[in-house]
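General statements about sequence and structure are easier to judge against a single worked case. For one protein, we set the task of working out the structure tokens from the amino acid sequence alone. This step matters because it turns folding into a mapping between discrete strings. The amino acid sequence and the backbone structure tokens for this protein are reproduced below.
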Amino acid sequence: MSDTVAAPAEEAPKPYAAEIVEIAKTIGAALLIALVLRIVLFQPFTIPSDSMEPGLLKGDYLIVSKFSYGWSRFSIPFSPPLGSGRLFDHSPLRGDVVVFSHKLGPKRMDYVKRLIGLPGDRVQVISGVVHINGKPVRQELLGPTFDPDDPGRQVMKVRESLGDRSWIALIESPDHVGETTGVYVVPKDRFFFMGDNRDNSLDSRWPDGVGMGFVPKAEVEGRARFILVSWTGGAELFKPWTWVTRLDLRRLLKPIR
């Protein structure tokens, strides 16, 4: 007499509704992880204007460190009203390239500028030279060039140095509006920002509503660390060939100074 082994019963297929629930859970978990990473660690930003040329160009896709300065309500999408303070607050340093949320006119947007003045600093621009607390920021003239976004506009390329940090700025003329100013005394919990493309930047040299004015610390979102990728002239979503043909490999993973 031979023993017979019963075949294992086939597992009943999951109902269609249960499969949909499982897929939804997987997608929800992935989105939650992405949201946490976006809030806590890094966030991508695109460059919308030419105010930070020549270091940052239109079409640059930046990676911003969210944990460099701590977190505020502006670190969270849609900036929910959770208070005006910062969690694990770390002060930025002069010369940092900072991304912040600011309301210029009726609409709040993200901006990227270079931090020039900390709370308590006295900032003044005299004939194109930035002075901080009475001391000029060191400048080295590098010669004339043309605005990367406006080839018909000639500007002077200068290297500015602050301590052991340096960057390139563009100045159209020492006599241009905004190149000689009064003294700005930066209030408590506020920052003074300027664009590197000095004569093509609405920044803290102009009062809030016209330019940035003094930017509240709470609006700071993070420090711009490096250029992930860049497209000359910008890639177009519905023209996939531009994702390759306009890719600028020279700016791939380029650190931001």
Summary: The CA atoms of residues 41 and 67 lie 6 Å apart.
